[in-house]
Amino acid sequence: MSGKESNKKILLHTCCAICSGHPIKFLRGLGYEPVAYFFNPNIYPESEYLKRVEAQKKLCETLNCELIIEDYQPELYRGIMKGFENHPEGSERCNRCFELRLLRTAQKAKELEIEAYTTSLSSSPHKNFKAIRAIGNFFSDYFKINFMDFDFKKQNGFLHTIKLADELKLYRQNYCGCENSMRVKS
Ligand code: SF4
Fold first, then answer.
1. What confidence tens digit (pLDDT) does each residue in 149-173 have?
2. 83 CA distance to ligand 1 centroid (A)?
3. CB of 93 closer than 6 A to ligand 1?
4. Which of the residues 60, 93, 126, 180 has an alpha carbon 20 to 30 A from that of 83?
5. Which CATH number is 49's domain given?
6. What distance in Å separates the CA atoms of residue 20 and residue 86, rounded to the nearest whole number?
7. Does ligand 1 have an atom closer than 6 angstroms to the CB of 153?
8. Predicted confidence (pLDDT) per residue in 23-76, tens digit
9. Does residue 31 lie in a domain region?
10. Does residue 2 belong to any structural domain of this protein?
């Protein structure tokens, strides 16, 4: 993508508040109006999900960003993970997790007649950007909408998003989200 886009909406899948502060500001800098979309059935347990939802609300209220929150639907995550539960972090397990979240985001963009979507997942240095981009582009072709493949961690984006989260005193999780990632940390 090149040049400034003018006042176009973009559906921003937000994996958490920490990772999405910088993307919201970055997209606005390009002339987009991001609509944040919190769809993360990977998060375990529900109490953790609710903490991350509250942090996302606080961020979006502060930045005056429209926010759509999906209900907690862990059965969706469990369904696609059958047989992959014990695969290590960064493997096909995480790719399936990205697929689930980006598929629903692309569907949602289509429903809302928003012509482009992207994801805050790329803010994290722990996530495989090539995999995210390939999956985003796949659903882009399927749904005939644009996937904007921003690598948000670049150009100090990761540091910026952490700084914003610290300034706003946002809740900061210490594991990626799923039960498996929680066990590894504890
Ligand atoms: S480690 Fe993170 S990206 Fe990987 S499956 Fe778990 S929640 Fe999803």
1. 999 999 999 999 999 999 999 999 9
2. 15
3. yes
4. 126
5. 3.40.50.620
6. 28
7. no
8. 999 999 999 999 999 999 999 999 999 999 999 999 999 999 999 999 999 999
9. yes
10. no
Q: Which residues contact 114 (CB under 8 A, 6 or more apart)?
A: 9, 10, 11, 35, 145
Q: Is 176 in the pocket of ligand 1 (CB under 6 A)?
A: yes
The parent domain of residue 79 ranges over 8-185
- 131 Cβ contact list (under 8 Å, min separation 6): 94, 95, 98
Q: Is 181 in the pocket of ligand 1 (CB under 6 A)?
A: yes
Distance from the alpha carbon of residue 51 to the mean position of ligand 1, in angstroms? 17
Question: How many domains are there within the chain?
Answer: 1
**C-beta of residue 161 within 8 angstroms of C-beta of residue 18:** yes
23 within a domain of the structure (yes/no): yes
Q: Let me know if residue 70 belongs to a domain.
A: yes
